[in-house]
Amino acid sequence: MESQNKIYVNRPTLPDLDEFYDLLKEIWESKKLTNMGKFHNQLENELAEFLGVKYVSLFANGTLALIAALQVLRISGEVITTPYSFVATTHAIKWNGLTPVFCDIEPETCNIDPNKIEALITPKTTAIVPVHIYGNPCNVEQIEEIADIYGLKVIYDAAHAFNVKLKGNSILNFGDLSILSFHATKIYNTFEGGAVISHDEKTKKRLDYLKNFGFAGETKVITHGINAKMNEMQAALGLLQLKYVEKNTEKRKRLAEIYYNAFNHIDGINYLKIRDEVDYNFGYFPIFVDKKDYGISRDELYQKLKENGIFARRYFYPLISQFSPYRELESSKPENLPVATKLSSEVICLPIYADLDEAEVQKICEIVQNSTTTY
Ligand code: T4K
């Protein structure tokens, strides 16, 4: 029997509706609904300042942002990436007619393992697409070193890494480009939305042509662009949402501390270690269930949570390399991806969002505590 009070892995935070209504009124009066209007341009500037980056190009969603980021750098051939992510990461590669090559991940972070990248490089390799999974930074220094030696581009899928910093510097300042997602399930949402972060004006300009059908003026089309623009309503919401980012991060941090304190004492429940030099956003709370020490499997715990009304999610299971469009690739073989295969079979992301009560988190901790069979 399922409990009445359902708790989901995620709930979007939203600003005051009256405040949003004021901005909607402006849109209604101006009749400027989309195509790089006032709110769109204001949000690009405010986001760049807030995040501490040079250029922001807003997009309709993170997937289109990643597709355009690969396009703008004219990536060809093979792209080394991680199988441990949301499927959109690899789909964006495929939509560019490129071949994804899956690289195994690090056991401590679930991020692409830089020590395993070089063995996958061939004459056809032109880029690396790592993901800062759960917002926890990749080993950007080592990835950059490899990319520099082999002349590869690096495009970070930073869909989870809004406002994450490494040694005080935005994680979005690493690599050639980074993309963000502002989907409803992300810590900063515009209902749907996304962005590409670039570091020079020319690239920013070309990204802006790309997302608007390739128009570079009223009668000039310079490339086979797409329609990936963010509209005024989404941008207006984004402006309001910016005001709450810090406060909401503090709330999620408090919830994470409750989880940490509880799980420190349970054998077989492991969680991500975030390095001291990282300002983390606490957007996800993944745990890894080691059946040998915990007694029951990940899927058994997942079911138990469900029976208690807790709708946790197994992000990221199955691995992208196991989905039918990709499983025939040589790099998809599980024996080539032992760490990713193991962690994907152990992971559960527990609920964490700003409006979640601390008492509910305590309840989740108790379910996890009471489910172990190896006292
Ligand atoms: N790269 C990475 C690494 C990504 O994780 C993602 C997206 C992307 C790229 C692509 O970015 P976008 O093109 O999406 O901007 C969700 C999201 O749809 C997806 O954005 C996200 N990653 C992925 C990790 O999770 P689902 O299918 O698991 O979401 P769904 O609808 O089951 O929602 C999860 C829970 O959130 C629900 O149980 C309840 C809650 N929820 C969800 C929505 C949509 C709400 O309370 N309200 C809502 O409106 O994919």
The CATH level-2 architecture of the largest domain is identified as: 3-Layer(aba) Sandwich
Strand content: 5-15%
Portion of residues in helices? Answer: 25-40%
Largest sheet: 7 strands, mixed
Question: Strand arrangement, largest sheet?
Answer: 2-10-9-6-5-3-4
CATH superfamily of the largest domain: Type I PLP-dependent aspartate aminotransferase-like (Major domain)
| Radius of gyration from the alpha-carbon trace, in angstroms | 21 Å
What is the number of helical segments per DSSP (H or I, 4+ residues)? 12
> What is the H-and-E element order?
EHHEHEHEEHEEEEEHHHEEEHHEHEH
Give me the count of strands: 15
- Shape designation: globular
Report the span from N to C terminus.
26 Å
- Provide the CATH topology of the largest domain: Aspartate Aminotransferase, domain 2
Ligands, ions, cofactors: ligand T4K
Structural class: alpha/beta
How many domains comprise the coordinates?
Answer: 2
- Provide mean pLDDT, rounded: 96
| Low-pLDDT sequence parts | none
CATH class label of the largest domain? Alpha Beta
Features:
375 residues, alpha/beta, Aspartate Aminotransferase, domain 2, Aspartate Aminotransferase, domain 1, 2 domains, three-stranded antiparallel β-sheet, 12 helices, 36% helix, binds ligand T4K
Strands, helices and their partners?
Layout (H helix, E strand, L loop, with lengths): L6 E2 L8 H14 L7 H14 L3 E5 L2 H11 L5 E4 L6 H8 L3 E4 L22 E5 L10 H11 L2 E5 L7 E2 L2 E2 L6 E5 L12 E5 L2 H10 L21 H10 L3 H19 L5 E3 L6 E2 L5 E5 L1 H4 L3 H10 L2 E2 L26 H9 E4 L7 H14 L4
Parallel strand pairs: 1-14, 3-4, 3-5, 5-6, 6-9
Antiparallel strand pairs: 2-10, 7-8, 7-12, 9-10, 11-13, 13-15
Helix pairs in contact: 1-7, 2-7, 3-4, 3-6, 8-12
Bound molecules: ligand T4K.
